[in-house]
Amino acid sequence: MYLPRSTNEQGPTWTRTDTHRRGLSVSVRVRPCLVLGLILLLFPGPATAQPDTPASFWQRATIYRDGWGVPHIEARDVRAMAFAFGYAQAQDHLKDMLLAYRVANGRAAAVLGEAYAASDVFALKMGHGRLAAAALEKADPVTGDLCEGFAMGVNAWLVKHPGDAPDWAEGVQPPDILALWHAFVMSFAKLDLPGVWQPPPAMPTANAWALAPKRTDEGKSLLVINPHEYHDGPFRWYEAHLSVGDMDVAGATLFGLPVIVMGHNPALGWAMTPNKADFADVFEERLTFPRPRANELRTAGIALERAFLLRYYASAEPYYVRTTAGLEERFTPTLSGPRGPLFEQGASLYSWRVGGYGEFGGLRQLVEMARATNLDAFQQALSAQQIPCFNILYADRAGRLFLIYNARVGDKPASRVPAAKNPMEQRRPVDWKTPLPAAFAENAWRTIVPPGRLPMVLDPASGYMQACGSPPWFATEKSGLRAEDWPFWFVGETDNYRARRVRQLLRAGLRSQRDMESMLYDASVPAAMDLVPGLVEAVKQRSGILGGPHPDLPWAINLLRDWNHMAATDSEAMTFYHVWWSLFQTRVAAKLSDDNMRYGALAAGDRETWDAAVMAADDAVRRMINQFQTIHVPWGRVHRIVRGARDEAASGALTGEPVFLASDSLYRNGKWVANQGYGFAMVVSFGESPEAVSVVPFGASENPDSPHFDDQLDLMLEKRFKRVRFRADEVKRYAAEAMGRRIRLYPLGIQGAATIETTAPVTLRLESTPDAPAPLPDGLAAFTPFVVPRWEPAPAGVRVRYDFVVPPVLCQVARLAELRFQGWTADGQWKVLERQRFDAATGVFTASAPGGLTVAILGPKEYLEVPEVPSPETIGMEEGDTPTAPPAEAAPPDSSEPAEAPDRSEPRFNFNQKLSVHPK
């Protein structure tokens, strides 16, 4: 439990005391005791094994960061991997991660104020933190190592950088990680209790699709992973690569989690998208008494129900809200019953039964999914049912495709059983989306539906599948699933334009990895393709209902009529369409509460709905003239994406359901700011070794001073991707820097490696250049580029081991033994390195040199077969592979359309192809 010690101008001072399963008791206090408390965490007493020290962890784990700042972590064990991953995440997004933990534990309002008070109440009632602390005591060793190692890694960073932490920062505790995971998955459950606040789904929407080898140009399986996020929310996506033992996985995780949530390993990959499975139910506990008076809490002999109610209100826990007057202490009841957490509404109590509530095996299950090498092993990992929701879409290098509509849900009856006293009474349907009598819980949740009974599709004949928010039977053509084969309450989705757009593009012939990249930036507005022709005709036929239509209405309708239905930055029609649709939603909101209902009413030709559409068009003209003085407003002028000081024109939209989602709901200072959209996008091609490209919406770091704060924003704006380095040799060759005690890097332009071992962790950068730092000794030439190791801090006595190979094309084999490593010393001399040798059998030159020397292999000029050593910009690198430049395989930066793929014999798909059928 957290209690305020005092407050000051900088914020609250907190004390936290917890005891964990390793016998560690800690006290962490914000300034001035933060560092001392964290040292207690990092250097525990005799109850904890000695290897759990930062020095030991850094001996067992190394962080390699590529040119985009993405961490690639190589470790000898899970605990050390989690430590390094926690350290890397603290470097990149400490504040945001700590705020996410506060949201999960019901402590955000103490920092963020009244806006998070309802969130804290919900989190405390759910008991994420309480349940996580109890679960960690019984957790399996892998989960324990993940949580404890990760927490120690974050705290190690805090110890080294106390001045870079926010004033309210505390050390992370292992239960925080489990609490965050529990809060994440529970956010997807629907609380069917009107008037009671609950958070929005942590991942609002997502895209995922896959192609079998027979449907691809390359003859390889392709997988697209594309979760979305609220850019200012507590659950945001972060790219990483983790390698430990037999787990080698790259992909995306959430700020604050120590595992990859979706991604790929050498053999397979998976994506997860939100589904609307009904895996939660509300039950009325029928406790309709008024709130108890204080003296009643001590009254004996009261009725059982009354006693339960008293116990509920007596369970109140405090939470704190920052106000203009300081911290305000409030209380909320936090009792859970046998059916789940309790919520009050009026004078009644309701319990919430949620599949997966109070279960914390999700991190371990994700590890097992990442370790799987084939579909059987992956399905075995899914059988643990520790992930209670999501569509899970799978593809592998063997060409297998698999989709499961995942849900941990009770085997609920579809209808009420007639009462015994009236056997002739007909069975009545049960509305599982409303509060039900508590007695229903016994039958509804007696057994959990096993994975084998969930909707799934395996290796469809179509060769493709998508999971973009539609029901599972619309995952592909001839999915083998029928809606009538499943209970009416089970699947909550209806088909949508975005999913239908993806199906349309996937079934139109062979596709390539470049096509998949283009599809992710597809800014066509499929809903507009259906609705605009009808709106144009309706305005012509029904303008009389307007009385005096605005004189610019015909011009606006002409804009729509001539539109190519793209949400491009230069599109004036997109701006008008967005304003029209927003005003139309407002006009029909009382009758039609969501977009699917509105689409259906328009498709059905409902006269009242079309009248509202025509009036909204006239409203839109007037609104635009008032706001912008013209109807000719390019979409990019008013649809923006903001990062720090950057305010950029954004294509894509939420209105009209483009595949490329960049929301348009937040209106601020005359602009719609995209605060929701892509959190991560990856395209994986499964060959002998997987090849992938990826992008995150802004960059790997949340630090505005980092070069990786917004470097990937340019990729998104220009419809490009960066290449993912996955093989160990690629990671080490293209690493911009590495951190650890034992680091091995492969210099660019050289076949070989540089290795250091230190007594304390360092950050190492390895520079490779064709230019000598000074004139070479007379008669000598360089047979390798010049390598300069740079590190911080610079520990004394560090030596670098070099293992280089000189290719025979540069020097005759018979002359190789006469070449020598030489280094340019601090006193301005070329010096032959000591402790060097040449292995004639392998052709490897080995030397050990003090740190700080510029090193190369030198030899007589006459032995050099090639007179010039190419620069590192061309040696060992593919075009565009420099850390500061996007890869050549990316889409053209100057195009507002999705990238065009190479010509092929089959017809290209048309991004402007009209959809002819309304979604159901």
Please, could you describe this protein's structure?
This protein has 920 residues and is α+β, with helices and mostly antiparallel strands. Helix content is 27%, strand content 25%. The chain is built from 22 helices and 42 strands. The chain has a 15-stranded mixed beta sheet that branches. Strands 6, 7, 24, 29, 30, 31 and 32 form a 7-stranded antiparallel beta sheet that branches. Strand 13 and strand 14 form a beta hairpin. Helix 2 packs across helix 3 (78-105), helix 3 crosses helix 7 (141-160) and helix 15 packs antiparallel against helix 16 (553-561). It is globular, with a radius of gyration of 31 Å. The two termini are 49 Å apart. Residues 1-37, 39-50, 296-301 and 872-920 have low confidence and may be disordered.
Topology, please?
Blueprint: E1 2-8, E2 11-19, E3 25-29, H1 34-42, H2 54-60, E4 61-65, E5 71-75, H3 78-105, H4 109-112, H5 117-126, H6 128-137, H7 141-160, H8 174-186, E6 206-211, E7 221-230, E8 237-244, E9 247-254, E10 262-264, E11 268-273, E12 280-284, H9 304-314, E13 317-323, E14 326-332, E15 336-337, E16 340-345, E17 348-354, H10 362-371, H11 375-382, E18 391-396, E19 401-405, E20 415-416, E21 428-429, E22 436-437, H12 440-444, E23 456-458, E24 464-466, H13 497-506, H14 513-520, H15 526-542, H16 553-561, H17 572-588, H18 595-603, H19 607-628, H20 635-638, E25 639-643, E26 646-649, E27 666-668, E28 671-673, E29 676-678, E30 681-686, E31 691-695, H21 711-717, E32 722-724, H22 728-733, E33 737-745, E34 751-769, E35 780-782, E36 786-792, E37 799-805, E38 820-824, E39 830-832, E40 837-839, E41 844-850, E42 854-860
Parallel strand pairs: 5-8, 12-22, 25-28
Antiparallel strand pairs: 1-2, 2-3, 4-5, 4-33, 6-7, 6-24, 7-29, 7-30, 8-9, 9-10, 10-11, 11-18, 12-17, 13-14, 15-16, 16-17, 18-19, 19-23, 20-21, 25-26, 27-28, 30-31, 31-32, 33-34, 34-36, 34-37, 35-42, 37-41, 38-39, 38-42, 40-41
